[in-house]
Amino acid sequence: MRDRVSEAIVERLMDKFKELRKARGLSHEQLAQLSSVSRPMISFMESHHRISSILVCLKVARALDVDLAALLLEVSRE
To answer: Does this model's pTM top 0.90?
Structure first.
C-alpha cells in the first residue's frame, strides 16, 4: 500500500526545488553543475517522474543554498 501523504510531501518538495531554481534564474544544467546531480535527474525530480534519495535532495538543497530540514518542515505543513 502506498503512503499518499508521504508521496504528496515529496512532490511538494520537488515543486519547491523547481520554484527555488527558477527564482535564482538557474537552468537545469546550471543546477546540475552546482549540485553534482545529473541534468536528467533534476528534470525527472521536477516532473515527479523519479523519487530522489535523501542524498540527492541534500545536494540540490545545498546548491540552492536552502536548509533541507526547514524546507521539509515547510512543505509538510502545506
So the answer is: no
